[in-house]
Amino acid sequence: MPKKTLILPGLIDVHVHLREPGGEHKEDFFTGSQSALAGGITTVMAMPNTYPPLVTFDQWSIAQQTADRKSLCDVFLYAGASSEHINELARLQTAVPALKLYMDQTYGPLRVQGLAQLMAVARAWHPDKIIAVHAEGESVAVAIALSAALNRRVHLCHISRKEEIELIAAAKANGLPITCEVTPHHLFLTEADAQRLGSLGDMRPLLAEQRDVDALWEHINTTIDCIASDHAPHTLEEKQSDNPPPGVPGLESSLPLMLTAAAQGRLTYERLIELMYHNPRRIFSLSKQSETWVEVDPLARYTFPDHPLYTKCGWSPFEGMDMQGHIRRVVFKGKEFVRDGIIRHS
Predict the structure, then answer these.
(1) Based on CB atoms within 10 Å of each CB, which residue in 162, 224, 251, 282 is the most buried?
(2) How many C-beta atoms lie closer than 10 Å to residue 61's C-beta?
(3) Is residue 20 very low, low, confident or very high in pLDDT (cuts 50, 70, 90)?
(4) Domains of the chain
(5) What would the pLDDT profile of 160-171 be if each residue is shown by its tens digit?
(6) Do residues 249 and 316 lie in contact, with contact meaning Cβ atoms separated by under 8 Å?
């Protein structure tokens, strides 16, 4: 039985959407960083599919400076790959933690189409730095082939299907520089939940079959490198509209869900720390935060959420779920920011 109190390092989420610039009615750097800290996350890496998208050094630099000014936790911004701005990559790679490459029809302005353009982007990016790829189905194989052919470090985002994780396992077994992440919603929800939740359970990739969820859990101690929330908030009004956008919030539910899984014996607490701290920090070459930790009570049982959510969108697909493992305190760089779910410092 675990101790009454566990001390975790400040956790890292390598895949969030904070909606700034351009979507501040859904989330912004301040509210998103509050949500992160409330969830035990002290470092987030935010995606570049904003308005405008972060495809030039100037666009990225302005957004990063805004994040530095407004955020309560550490926020690092990806640059976005764009066929029209390949000449920007040489300058961007000296400043950003990673490049985000969209290969599927999720965000049109950032989609890189055609093998020639994909190869041009990969060749222009430094081989020591990560290319994070939004890839689903067959495009997972394309991303792996790019890594193999051009010796590029590729991180595959939000893997959700049995065949995808098995292909990644084979690529790793052959020594390719491939890493991957899965989201808690793809570990805890299935297409049956999507029917129950309606538009509140719609995201990309779509929720999968039980066989896919089972396959992800089978690889939780081996192939999977990171747990990432893919925090993608939209307002309830948007989600309940006639044309609801895909995406769900996840910063405040990610750690509680994984603590619940650890309490159920699906992974160890040590493995949880590897997936949510050590591996993300190593893969993306992130600096260690001093005087930063998260105190949790692994025995506490409660119904999520047991306090108002800090994400601006104000809802979660996991509302009403019984969980075990409560975040008691979050200390970030020597300051207590969270106590019993409440932000104490701003």
Answers:
(1) 251
(2) 16
(3) very high
(4) 11-291 (3.20.20.140)
(5) 999 999 999 999
(6) yes
